[in-house]
Amino acid sequence: MKKLDINDKIQKLMLQNDLGAEITVQKIAGGLSHNMYRVVTDKALYAVKQLNPAVMCKKEAYRNFVFSEKTARVAKKNGINAVCALRFRGKVVLKEEDSFFMIFDWINAQTLSAEQVQDKHCEIVGQTLAKLHNINFRKQKNIMPKNAQTEPFDLDKYLSSAKEQGKPFAQRLQNSMELLSTLLQLSVAATNNLNNDLVVSHRDLDRKNVMWQSFTPFLIDWEASGSIDPALELVQVAWYWAGGDVESLDLHKFETLIKSYVEEYRGKICADHADLVYANVRPKLDWLQYNLLRAFVETEFESAELADNEVVDCLKELEYCVRQFDNVVKALKNCF
Prior knowledge:
Blueprint: H1 6-16, E1 24-28, E2 35-40, E3 45-50, H2 53-56, H3 61-77, E4 94-96, E5 99-105, H4 119-134, H5 155-164, H6 170-175, H7 177-194, E6 199-201, E7 210-213, E8 216-219, E9 226-228, H8 230-241, H9 251-264, H10 273-294, H11 304-323, H12 325-335
Antiparallel strand pairs: 1-2, 2-3, 3-5, 4-5, 6-9, 7-8
Helix pairs in contact: 4-8, 4-9, 7-10, 8-9, 8-10, 9-12, 10-11, 10-12
């Protein structure tokens, strides 16, 4: 039997779940791990996410997506504008042949570039994050926090592979090895020092995962949700919304977001400022590792060239983080 192409799979999926006929499928820009499609039917407009098979082959993948949707639904019930996947016969992840999908109602909203972010956006994001952290997920059925302990990873094997395959980032990676090794050790220790008073949260609340209708935010892509120290996520979120990821950190926006969070958050922030800054480096190191892994493959979902570029961008951002260390610590002291 001939395998269906992606358009046929999505059309079959929509018809089987009574989402309409006269179906038009258009691939759109989405995340860096999965494929996104804009799907128009005679009933409504939908966003369909085709999940990366390299992710779905992991034994914990399906459970993680189910967990993330439960987290998003609890957040929505508690007043957060969380965009949740549609459920069909109790399922949020649907299979069609060898492909996995999630279907969402289309949101007429947009993400912002670093240049478009205003102080008011930072204030609203800080308030929204605090409201999310104020939710007691432990009272919710079937919501269990994940283990947030973290360990170093082996940089040498990635450098060896990069040299063997003549990767364009090989020399840049080699030049950064001493810095990366130091940051790995410091960030692991700092992150584990913070893993005492955890909350369940989004854990990937950067600009690409918040869509805006004027100044109303909608939180999307909850797949990274799990346990995290609230102060750590606060610093990570402030870093991104203040332009730290594009080497253009606006300390006023950084402090605006944190201060708006502090006013809304009902818990106590008890964390060492230096630990928070070093722990903030860990997600960037994890993203570096992820892209080093996929830099050596090429599939519909895994673009080696895109991964190469992401590796270089990660290395630049990590170097920038180090240069901004003192400024960020000072800003944190000004806020709490």
